[in-house]
Amino acid sequence: MRRPRLLLGGLVVMLGGMVVSEGARADDMAEIRALHAEMRRLEAKVEQLEAHHGMTHGSQHVVAGRTLRSGGHPSGGGASGTSTMGQITAMPDLSRLTIGGPTLSDDAQAAAAAENTMTESIVPTQPRLDLDSSSPLAITQTGVDSLPPIFRIGGVSVRLGGFIDFSNIYRSKNLTSGPATSWGSFPYANSPNAHTGEYRPSAQLTRLSVLLQGSPTKDETLSGYIETDFGGAAGTANSYQTNSYTPRIRQAYMTYSNTKWGFHVLAGQAWSLTTGYTQGLLSRHEQLPPVVDNNQIPGIVFTRVPQIRFIKDFGRKWWLGLSLEAPQVAYAASGSCSDVDSTNDTCAGGGDHPMLINNTLQSGTHLLYSNAGAGMLNPNAKYSMDVAPDIVLKGALDTKPAHYEIYGLARWFKAMSQSANGGPIRERVSFAGGVGGDVTVHVIPRFLQFTGNVLAGEGIGRYGPGMLPDATFKANGTPAPIPEIIGSMGLIGHPTPDLLVYLYGGVEHAGRRTYTGTDGNQYGYGVNDLALSSCNVEMITGGSCDAQTHTLADLTVGGWWHVLQGGYGAVMTGVQYTYLRKFAYKGGDGASPTTGGNTIYVTFRYLPFQ
């Protein structure tokens, strides 16, 4: 096994004599990982202290009982290099530490600059086994915090993360979907796509991340984080010859942390504060399931949108966060919408809406609630007419056996309406939102974890991977938020340091929001007077089916295995199986359409920076 190395501001420290055979016992491996974690902790402290105090080439440090000289070699011999602040200084050796051990979040990086470094960190004091997290950083966030800097620009450290991904995807029904499964689009029997499967290999999940960090004072840290993959598809992208899929922003945000005040700010595109966290409420500690699918699995609560967030911690145990996040609304297709996007069962932008005015059906009343994008927005997509940002207020508690969260979500929907006979255009606004919670329990520390999340309320469909609609309309054209619940539970096991297995179950359910017109027909979402027998009539041209989804349920099982790991990086392979069931509201003819399908992923990843 290649001997691990520690990079300290231009100094390479070899752990001489530490050679581990392939048959080393598990307790020996745990001790080695503990040493690696301690090395990373000391490295971060030294770098932050040097940046803050402007330490010169001749300063000394003591690591593991050995006296080290900045920019040189262990005392007793060897030439020393130079390190000038304000210049780009390349690290003399790019050997990587192995995956595992605690990661350094924004606040931990700031705390590392203080004399009592890491004692205030939210990172557990005990080292973790490889992959011992319900959100393995090697899988979901690329573990960039735990890596040594590649180089420095003045007082700013630069860390790289990411992986090369190759995923083989098989679905029992043809969705013509890339590595992000459109869970709500599984076709009913009337579609020919319901009678054939699809195989879709993809490298689009290949990811690159960059973390920039600097400390103006011993208590403060400024960070910038950028994460991108190739999940974009321009108008010229296709699979005929060159597969020219385009890079896109996954995350791009800046943060400020002050450990003395326990105050943290985030601004940019990041995971929503509604997303669960493994500990605290700081970035890159999200409780994301270790699944391959880029659309997660039904039942997980998340968005990834522009926002500004304020976090206050109280002794690194209690947390309070407020986030203002970019809104969007998906309106439901029904008899109340004549302009329908059949792909996701939502209204496309506006149309004639049968309303009751003075107890008379007005079939020509017009609604407008979204517009095509312009000015760097996608002209082929519809954007809702928004009133204010989505607001999330969350509290969290960290204890030794578990992490708990509870939060509230507030939203506003807007539409413009005009009667069939003309007259003034009316602006109609509705309030929506819900309450939610998350929990992570260390059932058997280091070996088994339980995680669960739930969000219930009205108009919350966009926060679930199934993308059930947020709202329909009342008789007068006012947006009518749809009652919904989103939830999941999962078990994550770590039988060996190199193996992670997981089991998840999730559900997304939309309730009814309807009214009856003077013609006797129902309008809105969840109507029960539609003729739905045709949903089960097989037609090669695709028959008509106006079914409205009320429930998506899934069961997912999978695992990851470290095939290779060392100074050359890491190679991982993963296998995942998901069974999905989709249920529609019962029609007036007694038909209750249902459908389902199977999804299998076989994935290979090379993580060169870990």
UniProtKB/TrEMBL annotation:
Residues 25-52 form a coiled coil. The keyword Coiled coil applies. Keywords: Coiled coil. This is DUF3138 domain-containing protein. It comes from Komagataeibacter oboediens.
